[in-house]
Fold this sequence. Notes:
The complex is a heterodimer of chains A (705) and B (172). Chain A contains 16 helices and 27 strands.
Amino acid sequence: MTTTDLVPARAMGTPRRRTEGPAKVTGTARYAAEYAVARPLHLHPILATVPRGRVTAIHTTAAEALDGVVAVLTTRDAEALADTADREFAVLQDDEIGFRGQYVAAVLADTSETARHGADLVRVTYDEDPFRARLDPDSGELYAPDSVNPAFATDSVIGDVSSALRDAPVTVDATYRTAMTHNNPMEPHASIVVWEPAGTGGRFTIFDSTQGVSATRRNVATVFGLDPGDVDVISPHVGGGFGSKGNMHANVVLACLAARRVPGRPVTYALTRQQMFSLVGYRTPTVQHVRLGASPDGRLTGLVHDVVEQTSRIKEFAEQTATYSRSVYAAPHRRTTHRLDPLDVPVPSWMRAPGECPGSFAAEVAMDELATACGLDPVELRIRNEPDADPESGKPFSSRHLVECLRRGVERFGWSRRDPTPRARLVDGWWTGTGVAAAAYPANRAPGSGATVRFHAPAAGGEEHWDVEIAAADIGTGARTVLGQIAADALDVDVDTVEVTVGDTAVPAATVAGGSSGTTNWGTAVVDAAQRFREKFGADPSDGDEADGTTPETDAAEHYAMSAFGAHFVEVAVHADTGEIRVPRMLGVFAAGRILNPTTARSQLLGGMTMGLSMALHEDSVMDPRSGHVVNHDLANYHIASCADVGEIDVEWIDEVDPHVNPMGSKGIGEIGIVGAAAAVANAAHHATGVRVRSVPITVDAFLG
Amino acid sequence: MNADITLTVDGRERSLTVDPRTTLLDALREHLGVTSPKKGCDHGQCGSCTVLLDGRRTLICLALAVAHDGAVVVTADGLGRGDELHPVAEAFLDADAYQCGYCTPGQICSAVGVLDEAADGWPSAVTPDLAADEVVLDRHEIAERMSGNLCRCGAYAHIVDAVSAVGNGAVR
Ligand code: FES
Ligand code: FES
């Protein structure tokens, strides 16, 4: 059985304000570093200033003599961790330096000013080793990882693509590049940690900014050799993450090490914005070689997507960049590959739509080039290459409405009036043009979430209410709100009577907010708990009755390819004299299953598109190959889109209910908004100016000279 | 070397002793437990710490507390009257002009400042007539004036909706 029984939608699909809205607009919602704890100590770390080598000496006397400094932790005296299999977590364990910006020491003091002052007084000397910090697609060290994130095949080959390309009447052969970028959630990663010893062990209480309290609990327990039950993690509000708070990073280990130095006292550690550029992950830069072969009518005969990207020598992260090309367009002969360049750099990790985001840039610009080569409208080209089934696995799609998204966008955007000639519209000194790109993102589902539903009978004159508890994360997605809607429909009760608790290991464990799978995983567990509740207690439960549920296994993925799809339409203006590029208009049309809360869904999709615009025009972490240092490591120099960069921007979705992904009929929407957005900007820039830009960010120099 | 200062924060007078290096932001967050203003960069680059300082929107990560003895600080938590939210905060809820909420208190204080500044006739880089007495806050003006407040969730389109809904000078 692969079709899920769908929960009838009443609250689901109806716009609903965020539950925690009033607390957020007044600023009273508490984020990790904001808990009122007694006598906190403040931590300020010292970071390695060389990219590879070893610490030869750490001079701490001056720092220790400073009034208010309580302890200095160094590689020389930190306690041995129980498990350092994950090298990113091997904080202060030895003198080896694997990247510039790695922790080598930390100062604990009674005020944040003193901690920072103390850190300034610590002197560290190093032996430097030769290193490499610049991605080199011709590096002799390139290697094929065993798999790419999270568990996809590194390469895929179908048919005989070399012959197909050789024989194709029309070809595109181009190299595309995407920049190293940093997640930069607005709330810096932060923790308050308390260690309370008891007997031979003890207990951690961690207020953390995380996309998954359960995963943080597990990781801390592993690293410190504790029972997971002895680690409490609390994270009800998270100031964004976009993947950087999905995997735990070294900062949590450092804060825990420090807390164990001062049993019973809370240790506060909020990263500075600068520290976020070396310690909490980033999107790897990519070099992507795409080759397309097609018949003159634009039908693809062959497709190659070869990717080179960087990883850190101390820990592998293999972004699944070419997987986008495995499922979007039909072509009988095809190949995708991933090769990694191991560098002496910080560890890359998840950033919104890892894989699909950079991969779609290359794939969708290449399709635009093919449209030009065939003299075809780029929308029509995409429609002509629509596959009947997943091009690699041959499985049918559980639902796929990419063509409908394109057609709806054509109508909404006024695309049919478009003159395809590039560099043909000069308006008030600006070359203007429009572009399109498709989007796709897999509808992921993973086991490992539980939920509790509990009934409270009405007190005299009051109303009944329901508790729904699950250690999910609301990082701004609206998860808390939407889980309430799901629970209400699964229980068939008024949504206003449901109260949802997330972000706390005191409630049933859940998967991280990642892979756009949160609502599927958690919502399915909530539905299961609600159904078990009704089976157990019927329509007339007693006060305090409760039932637990989990995310049941399903074999849907064995039978279907499951993805959300979308289409971006973008207008670009490029100043004829200065090359300044602006994006006055964006439209995204998505087919992503049932939209459970139109209010928060719209925000998430707009947010993804805005981050895509930001990737297209601004984001570029500039790695100095001579120092291994991201030189623009703050928000004045690492530019992200600001309010004035966003013009008219709109989002729409088409009616789709997918019965195979989950019992709500929905698909994930957290990431698809960014997929394809940058390609649409580049394609529009080409239409505007005739200049084909094959790298992001797109800056003025591309249009000058 | 520490200094004793008094601040009025959201209508309450608060006395505290601060290190001369303490910013007004840390004085609020770390000393007074007032965490409505957020710390996104600590360098005047993001707008998360925006409050109304003596009536004007100000980045208080760049203000030293000792230099502001006697100052009147209004955070997003102090904008409303009693339990009633400020109209700008209401408009943010209506427009879903936030996601994670971390930039939001700063955005709202900034928006209140924008409405005041426009009503006072302060031009911006996109104002067509620099000599006009009053500025018409169209979307363009709002986006320009709100650009000191970064939002990584990308709520900008809805933030402009929210500020537009409150309108020109409506909250004086
Ligand atoms: S924290 Fe003050 S501007 Fe960023
Ligand atoms: S709402 Fe998250 S940064 Fe603005």
